[in-house]
Amino acid sequence: MSIPTLQIYASIGAPAEANNYQSIDAAIFKSMLQGAEASGEKSALIRINSGGGSWIEAQSMYAYIKASALKIDTANDGIAASSASVIFMAGRKRSMAAHAKLMIHNCSSPAYGGIADLQLAIDQQGHLNDSMATLYANATGQPLEQIKQMMQATTWLSAEQALELGFATHITDQGKAALTPSLELSEAAGCLAEYTASLATYYATLLPSPTQSMKNLLMPIMAAAGLASITAEADDATFINAVSAAFTERDELKEKLSTAEAAIAAATLEKETAEQALAALELSNTQAAAAATEATALQVVATAITEGRILASQKGAFEALAKADIINATAALAAMPARKQTLTEQITADANGATGAEVRMPLTAGGVMAEIRANNAQ
After folding, report:
1. CA–CA dist 53, 100 (Å, integer)
2. Is 0.85 topped by the overall pTM?
3. Do the Cβ atoms of 305 and 333 come closer than 8 Å?
4. I want to staple 93 with a disulfide (CB 3.0 to 4.6 A). Which of 73, 211, 223, 376 is the partner?
């Protein structure tokens, strides 16, 4: 059964009446490629003879080829120009007929509008040119700047030039005589033929003669493999059992290795999971400790204000100190003397809604005067 062959003998882009529908776009190509993938074959060939068309459609077709499970080769049967060259470059093997041509150049598209619109169109084409140049450079191995210069100059390549620069991987001559190899290649082929003949002669000496037993020929190999039970006196049954046991041992070792690798993978996963849980717990503990320290700091400052050790206006500053160093801040506040609340502060506290122990309002005129004298004495 021959491998599936897809043919792109049309312009690249959506079919339109203007060109009698002689075009192929990415959607049509994807359907063709899916049919080839459903054939059950492992390889496919895409034959190209196209002057190009839409760069966007060609890039999509390039992506479909690269993502396919098939091993896809491309063939330039006559011309792969402009965006058609992009599709040609997607092949694992890229063959060109001896007469075929390949052309690369910068993209082009219509633009209209104001200065900003035209500048945007220029920028967009610049990005697309860079994308194409990178694709060609990666496929051929040529320097990116050289590829950009070739595109800027609109470069046409013969089959020989494309092969030399890496755009093609080989040249076909459609059934005619093969290309004459270079002198260096001929000399290399001669050396290879001579080496192959020597190698064949050497292996012929190892083959058993009609009077030589295959068992005896393989004994050195068996001895090297550690099968000491194989000797010249061993019968065929012993030989077969020893070989079978060796293969069984090999399979058992493979199974043990597979089990050990699975255990290592499971242990590695368990270790990673435990490390993540530990990190989460440590973060939670750190956050809880910070929250507890902050709560304690706020309470220490609030108590100091209640006891009259600091003023309410000093609350913010002392809270910041307590959050930064709770131990020393607590000690410093405890060392401060408690200040007796003045009559004015008592009246202010009552006016602000203070209740209980915070309200120590004198009940008589004598009490008020005593409070004033006490305040003056302080």
Report:
1. 18
2. no
3. no
4. 73
